[in-house]
Design brief:
It comes from Piloderma croceum (strain F 1598). This protein is of the alpha+beta class. Helix content is 16%, strand content 23%. It folds into two domains: 234 residues, no CATH class; 65 residues, no CATH class. It is globular. Bound molecules: 2-acetamido-2-deoxy-beta-D-glucopyranose (NAG) (2 copies).
């Protein structure tokens, strides 16, 4: 076959397949040092927490087992908008090779698991995660202007839907006082439930939920409505009139904790393991897993476009290109 034919075969192969495609899928145990070009941190994180870690693997498992992306260092240039490409993972639990969220930073947290996503929302003093005081923040997602994500190479894992797995679609808003992080169950509608184009509209518009301080709870919930979708019309950020947020979806089976903590005494630059606690850190790390699987089943990105966001178009083109390249390899 000529290269041109190979490309055509690859493309049609892709078009008949699944709605989304990703160039690779990882587990923490097989993730490479860098999953994206231009990445400043790492996905090969080991297990020991460390307040200077550059780990960019985040976990979203439960009320007391979640991570947030935040700047690697404090000070000038660390506004979320300025540091989004290089942010690192801060977690409630040891065992992931990330930094730990210092105890007391989170003032209220609400974890909800729905049929389509898991989500944590809340408030806190996130200056202890190097976010400058007063920073109104911004949005992180795996797409970014260059398609490599913000942070570049950030990966999200969860065992909420079964075995620990990578959740490719996620969105995380961070400011100095508020956070929200949603990661979506793999499936054709994941990009919609984790839509990332409304990056100027903040947590409460994108992820209507409980944000109250003083409460730490975990619930089951309905998925509600995908952000930006109002009946048959889809709002485009920047249009003259911004519609109100969707109502907070119903939740049930809530359980509460008085607070959440990791038991380690950490400041933003050091960890002093607590001599007494040793309570938490029962994390599972699968002993084996599929190695990075190339999913050349591309193209559906095109079919699922609801909004002509330019980021989306870049991503789609990239996915097609990767799909066709992998397809070409398979054909050969
Ligand atoms: C792994 O990534 C880190 C952070 O980007 C970098 O400092 C280190 O040199 C990399 N290690 C290897 C072996 O490439
Ligand atoms: C934390 O990680 C840094 C490298 O990022 C390393 O130099 C340091 O020794 C580690 N600290 C501990 C306590 O493991």
């Amino acid at each position: 076959m000529t290269p041109f034919n190979v490309l055509l075969v690859a493309l049609s192969f892709g078009l008949s397949a699944r709605a989304q495609s990703y160039s690779a899928t990882y587990l923490p145990s097989n993730a490479p040092n860098h999953s994206e070009k231009g990445q400043t941190g790492t996905n090969k994180c080991g297990t020991a927490a460390n307040q200077t870690s550059l780990c960019q693997n985040a976990y979203l498992n439960s009320l007391d087992d979640f991570c947030l992306f935040a700047p690697p260092k404090p000070g000038k240039g660390s506004d979320i908008g300025d540091s989004e490409q290089i942010e690192v993972s801060w977690c409630m639990n040891d065992g992931y090779g990330t930094r730990l969220i210092p105890d007391g930073s989170i003032h209220g947290a609400h974890f909800v698991q729905t049929p389509d996503f898991v989500q944590i929302t809340g408030t806190g003093d996130l200056t202890s995660l190097n976010i400058p005081k007063g920073d109104e923040g911004g949005e992180l997602d795996p797409h970014g202007a260059d398609g490599n994500g913000n942070p570049i190479g950030g990966l999200v894992f969860s065992s909420a839907f079964g075995q620990l797995e990578q959740l490719h679609e996620w969105t995380n808003f961070m400011s100095s006082t508020e956070f929200c992080f949603r990661a979506c169950k793999p499936g054709p509608k994941a990009p919609q439930w984790c839509e990332h184009v409304y990056d100027l509209l903040g947590c409460e518009w994108n992820m209507p939920a409980n944000y109250a301080a003083g409460t730490f709870e975990q619930c089951l919930g309905d998925s509600g409505l995908p952000m930006g979708v109002y009946g048959s019309s889809t709002f485009e950020q920047g249009a003259p009139h911004t519609p109100p947020p969707h109502p907070i979806p119903k939740s049930s089976s809530c359980s509460k904790m008085s607070t959440i903590k990791n038991g380690a005494i950490v400041t933003s630059s050091s960890i002093l393991p607590s001599t007494t606690s040793a309570s938490v850190s029962t994390t599972t790390s699968p002993s084996s897993g599929p190695s990075a699987t190339a999913a050349g089943k591309s193209s559906g990105g095109v079919l699922t476009i609801a909004l002509p966001g330019w980021e989306r178009l870049v991503v789609t083109a990239g996915a097609l290109l990767i799909g066709s390249m992998v397809g070409a390899v398979i054909v050969l």
